[in-house]
């Protein structure tokens, strides 16, 4: 094909994106749109038509859910040793690696694949470099559905991130076709081409089905902690990336009557690395759960391949923190050596934050880390740090301050080196609001209707008054 | 009854250029803009072929995809890598600390 023809094909495919995505989703997003800005989020979530009980039932049939909630007594002990007297909450972890396919993503995939079958699609596609690929592939395998996974894996030298190479292998182990691309946002174009070519269902991470599937996780945590301690967990920490994890978990906690529980998002700090850079791609040691997704998905959740993202973490997060790559590898090592649980590193992002957060909480309180993930060749601290070294990243012992994403990974020298950095949600909210004003092409809040301000307040988890005050600072 | 020798169709990896550098979207870092957008797919090779030939594979879900043959019998080359001594040392220290706390 000549360059000009490809160029034309590219433009033509991109121009058809709304049509392609609508055909591939089975959701009529326009139904929920109320004017130029407002979107009926609750109605979108309700439109799945599945109750929490029905979701749990479907997941039960798919070998998903009811994972063990484990108390990490040795890590708690070490946290208390660092904390002032009376502080040091009990740390629990939900062992989500026990789901079929080895991560909490199976909760999201089970419902999406179920829905694709119900609607009569001939197969499912998901674009993901994370555990979600294996989750969709495994759910498709057991439900007799065809599955195609599209993942960003290689730099231009053909060198693949070991963590993603492993996930590609897992997808093939479950019988999926896997497309492994080089670095670039044209993943979206390829995704559209494949959706059109196959007529498959778009098992996007961002549909209401995908987010609804996580509610059972929050619900199980709330219910189980109340059974153990007689009250809701004080804090649940969720590794935050595209936003579905914290959104679904918070919804499920709410359904379990845990309104008082604080939901804290945690991401690996990769600030400074360009996610679309061919060179930077293989200089990061985490391919998911990092600030490169976490921050932009908070400030603009609709940067996805669906018209309206059902994962809207800014509506649910009480706090957002970041941790260093080195600290996550360190805590992963301690989880194995002190608790006898060898689990994948990326899922331990939230555990790393929890280790420090626990030191700031009363010792009779409970902090829950809401996931673990499977580990294996490629997806393991030794694999990922070996790869980092081969790609010119220094791995040393040292305090948090030594970490430079893409340059230095510092494994803590002392337990007290495991720290988090608070990311100011108010700044994130302001950035979200500025983006909304700019998309509407308006200069200030005076041009917004009452309904629009109410909507923006819900989007940013503020009262209308607080939202208006923040909007004033966002005038362009 | 005699068994056929070897697999009937070989497992293979193909590659295809989706977009040449000049066709890539504008908002890209310079290093990414310079290289093609490239995809690798694996499946069962149809017919006999040599590396570099344009071939068709049948994927695990029965779809046919055409591209340049990169490898026959592509390995899953990822591993557990090297032991990371910094982590082993860190684990050793934490276990010692825990033991000392238990003795107190």
Task: Kindly report the average pLDDT value of chain A.
Answer: 95
- What is the percent of helical residues of chain A? 40-55%
Total DSSP helices of chain A: 20
> Biggest β-sheet of chain B: count, sense, barrel?
4 strands, antiparallel, barrel
Radius of gyration of chain B: 24 Å
Whole-number mean pLDDT of chain B: 92
Stretches of chain A where pLDDT is under 50 for at least 5 consecutive residues are none
How many strand elements of chain B?
4
CATH class assignment of the largest domain in chain A? Alpha Beta
| Structure classification of chain A | alpha/beta
Q: How many angstroms separate the termini of chain B? A: 72 Å
How many angstroms separate the termini of chain A? 46 Å
Write down how many β-strands of chain A occur, each being a DSSP E stretch of 2 or more residues.
15
What share of residues are in beta strands of chain A? 5-15%
For the largest sheet of chain A, list the strands in their spatial order: 3-4-12-9-10-11-15
Radius of gyration of chain A: 22 Å
The DSSP helix count of chain B reads: 2
The helix/strand series of chain B, from N terminus to C terminus, equals: EHEEEH
Describe the structure.
The complex is a heterodimer of chains A (476) and B (104). With 476 residues, chain A is α/β, with parallel strands linked by helices. Chain A folds into 3 domains: 3-52 and 103-210, Rossmann fold (3-Layer(aba) Sandwich); 63-101 and 211-423, Rossmann fold (3-Layer(aba) Sandwich); 427-473, no CATH class. In chain A, 45% of the residues lie in helices and 14% in strands. Chain A has helices spanning 3-15, 17-25, 41-46, 52-61, 73-82, 105-118, 131-143, 162-173, 187-198, 208-212, 215-229, 244-255, 278-281, 291-299, 325-339, 349-358, 381-390, 425-440, 450-460, 464-473; strands spanning 33-34, 38-39, 69-71, 90-94, 123-127, 146-154, 177-182, 201-202, 235-239, 262-268, 319-323, 366-369, 394-397, 408-411, 421-423. The longest helix of chain A has 16 residues, at 425-440. Chain A starts with a helix and ends with a helix. Chain B starts with 10 loop residues before the first strand and ends with a helix. With 104 residues, chain B is an alpha+beta fold. Helix content of chain B is 22%, strand content 31%. The mean pLDDT of chain B is 92. Chain B contains 2 helices and 4 strands, in the order βαβββα. Chain B has a 4-stranded antiparallel β-barrel. The longest helix of chain B has 19 residues, at 85-103. At the A-B interface, α1, α5, β6, α8 and β7 of A face β2 and α2 of B. β7 of chain A pairs antiparallel with β2 (37-45) of chain B.
């Amino acid at each position: 094909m000549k360059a000009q023809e490809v160029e034309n094909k590219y433009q033509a495919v991109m121009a058809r994106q709304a049509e392609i995505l609508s055909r591939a989703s089975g959701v009529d997003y326009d139904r929920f749109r109320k004017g130029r800005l407002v979107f009926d989020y609750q109605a979108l979530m309700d439109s799945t038509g599945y109750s929490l009980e029905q979701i749990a039932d479907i997941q039960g049939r798919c070998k998903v859910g009811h994972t063990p909630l484990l108390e990490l007594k040795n890590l708690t002990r070490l946290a208390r040793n660092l904390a002032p007297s009376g502080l040091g909450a009990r740390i629990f972890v939900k062992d989500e690696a026990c789901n079929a396919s080895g991560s909490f993503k199976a909760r999201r995939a089970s419902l999406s694949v179920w829905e694709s079958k119900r609607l009569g699609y001939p197969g499912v596609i998901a674009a993901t470099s994370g555990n979600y690929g294996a989750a969709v592939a495994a759910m498709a395998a057991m439900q007799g559905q065809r599955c195609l996974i599209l993942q960003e894996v290689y730099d231009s030298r053909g060198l693949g991130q070991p963590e993603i190479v492993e996930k590609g292998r897992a997808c093939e182990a479950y019988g999926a076709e896997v497309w492994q691309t080089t670095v670039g946002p044209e993943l979206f174009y390829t995704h559209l081409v494949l959706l059109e070519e196959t007529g498959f269902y778009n098992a996007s991470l961002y549909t209401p089905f995908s987010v609804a599937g996580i509610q059972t996780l929050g619900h199980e945590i709330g219910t189980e902690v109340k059974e153990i301690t007689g009250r809701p967990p004080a804090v649940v920490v969720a590794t935050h990336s595209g936003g579905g994890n914290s959104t679904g978990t918070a919804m499920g906690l709410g359904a379990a009557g845990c309104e008082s529980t604080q939901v804290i998002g945690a991401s690996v700090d990769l600030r400074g690395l360009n996610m679309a850079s061919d060179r930077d791609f293989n200089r990061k040691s985490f391919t998911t759960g990092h600030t490169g997704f976490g921050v932009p998905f908070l400030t603009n959740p609709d940067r996805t391949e669906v018209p309206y993202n059902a994962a809207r973490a800014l509506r649910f997060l009480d706090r957002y923190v970041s941790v260093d790559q080195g600290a996550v590898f360190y805590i992963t090592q301690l989880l194995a050596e002190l608790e006898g649980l060898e689990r994948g590193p990326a899922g331990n992002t939230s555990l790393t934050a929890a280790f420090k957060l626990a030191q700031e909480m009363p010792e009779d309180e409970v902090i829950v880390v809401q996931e673990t993930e499977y580990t294996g060749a490629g997806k393991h601290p030794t694999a990922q740090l070996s790869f980092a070294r081969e790609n010119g990243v220094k791995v040393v012992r040292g305090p948090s301050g030594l970490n430079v994403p893409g340059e230095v990974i510092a494994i803590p020298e002392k337990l007290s080196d495991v720290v988090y950095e608070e990311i100011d949600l108010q700044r994130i909210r302001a950035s979200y609001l500025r983006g909304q004003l700019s998309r509407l092409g308006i200069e200030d809040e005076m041009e917004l209707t009452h309904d629009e301000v109410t909507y923006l307040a819900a989007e940013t988890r503020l009262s209308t008054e607080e939202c208006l005050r923040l909007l004033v600072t966002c005038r362009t | 009854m005699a068994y056929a020798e070897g697999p009937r169709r070989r497992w293979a990896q193909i590659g295809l250029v989706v977009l040449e550098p000049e066709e890539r979207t504008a908002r890209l870092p310079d290093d990414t803009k310079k290289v093609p957008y490239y995809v690798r797919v694996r499946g069962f090779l149809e017919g006999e072929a040599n590396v570099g030939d344009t071939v068709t594979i049948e994927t695990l879900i029965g779809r046919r995809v055409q591209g340049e043959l990169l490898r026959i019998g592509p390995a899953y080359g990822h591993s557990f890598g090297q032991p990371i001594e910094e982590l082993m040392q860190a684990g050793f220290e934490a276990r010692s600390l825990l033991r000392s706390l238990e003795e107190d």
